[in-house]
């Protein structure tokens, strides 16, 4: 019998750079299932799910997720992990693409998977986006953000 933890482990296997299979990954979801990239406020549904995997793999062709802990409680599977890879393709941001840097990433993350009848209903990915950007050499510019907020508030 396949457990919820088995389904989640298979999802990670299918999302690896060397075995990437977005269609089989999508098939693990319910018809109305969602993949939420929480730090970036993005939600993927249907055919957007394999496209999201392909997009990340195009920036990090050797993408790997090191699973540190997997905890299944009923229909919820919580995973502590590290997202690892080499930045070899364009990485999209709201301000434009970060050109390939060749840098390695090793980003802490936690994922929550909610399953229904052995299929993924909701996948919430919580990655440390600030760590990710810093490792790419694009650390957030807090000084500019503070200045912009002060200007907007009329305190500059």
From TrEMBL:
InterPro entries in the record: NTF2-like_dom_sf (IPR032710), SnoaL-like (IPR037401)
Which superkingdom heads the taxonomic lineage of this protein's source? Bacteria
Pfam families for the chain: SnoaL_2
Q: Which SUPFAM superfamilies match?
A: NTF2-like (SSF54427)
What's in the keyword line of the UniProt record?
A: Isomerase
Q: Which GO terms describe its molecular function?
A: isomerase activity
What is the designated name of this protein?
Ketosteroid isomerase
Highest classification ranks of the organism: Bacteria, Bacillati, Actinomycetota, Actinomycetes, Micrococcales
């Amino acid at each position: 019998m396949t457990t919820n933890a088995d389904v989640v482990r298979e999802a990670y296997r299918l999302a690896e750079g060397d075995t990437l299979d977005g269609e089989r990954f999508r098939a693990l979801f319910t018809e109305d299932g969602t993949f939420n990239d929480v730090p970036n406020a993005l939600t993927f549904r249907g055919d957007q799910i394999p496209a999201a995997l392909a997009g990340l793999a195009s920036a990090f062709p050797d993408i790997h997720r090191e699973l540190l802990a997997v905890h299944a409680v009923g229909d919820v599977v919580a995973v502590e992990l590290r997202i690892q890879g080499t930045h070899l393709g364009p990485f999209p941001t709201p301000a434009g693409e970060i050109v390939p840097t060749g840098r390695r990433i090793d980003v802490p993350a936690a994922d929550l998977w909610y399953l229904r009848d052995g299929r993924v209903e909701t996948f919430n990915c919580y990655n440390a986006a600030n760590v990710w950007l810093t490792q790419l050499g694009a650390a957030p510019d807090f000084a500019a953000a503070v200045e912009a907020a002060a200007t907007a508030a009329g305190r500059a």
